[in-house]
Amino acid sequence: MLRGSMVALVTPMQADGSLDWEALHKLVDWHLQEGTDAIVAVGTTGESATLDVKEHIAVIRAVVDQVNGRVPVIAGTGANSTSEAIELTQAAKDGGVDACLLVAPYYNKPTQEGLFLHHQKIAASVAIPQLLYNVPGRTAVDMLPETIVRLSHVDNIVGVKEATGDIARVGQILESAKEGFLLISGDDDTAVDFIAAGGVGEISVTANVAPKLVAQMCELAAQGKVEEARAINARLADVHTAMFLESNPIPVKWALAKMGLMPNGIRLPLTPLDAKYHSQVEQALRAANLL
């Protein structure tokens, strides 16, 4: 069910930071038309850290209602408080999502045993498919392959979004994980090689601006047509770079506004893209024929 290009969808906002429901509706429609295989609502790229709980759940429900079962919807429900993560995960389940994505607890830097017990408790508390999310550059803690393998044998934990860019981890995890455990790339640059090594797809930032190309790239990689997939990745290489010139989702929201798909609204402490990067992002979009 969870495979291919899974967009880490932005949450559109007006200039004053209010949620833009019309733009969200249009973005979801566009992704369905362009071939995106699944939609991740209110993850890091969706500014989960700046939405309150009521908004968080409202966005998830809006995406679920509009998608109407046409592709899977995955909700970002991670937190550095286990009880809060359980609350969000239960609310997302009640909202009709197909799965939840739970980032490793950030800032408080739990031990590997703490990571295991955190995710084990959420999985035992909410009966919905759950994806682990390892992104040490954001969380300051690295969920090691052996911890991921342990968690793969816990009921309801069905896969991991691995954003380290370390392709060697694919084999390390698959070797001992339960059968059918899903490995999903969280790094646009290395996604093709990740899929070729045994991954099932990627949760992508770049797919926000290039949904059709990323979907094609993931499909080719899954079919073993790695060189063709790499050719698409090469076309998107400057876009991948541009999306992280400042903290995600600053550049991607500016890019979508430049493409005319939504206003350029973002919430503090994030700020609009610095003007010194505008030309680089625009040039990357033009080079990939996205503008």
Automatic annotation (TrEMBL):
PROSITE patterns: DHDPS_1, DHDPS_2. Its main location: cytoplasm. It is found in: Cytoplasm. The keyword Lyase applies. Homotetramer; dimer of dimers. HAMAP family: DapA. This is 4-hydroxy-tetrahydrodipicolinate synthase. It comes from Saccharophagus degradans.
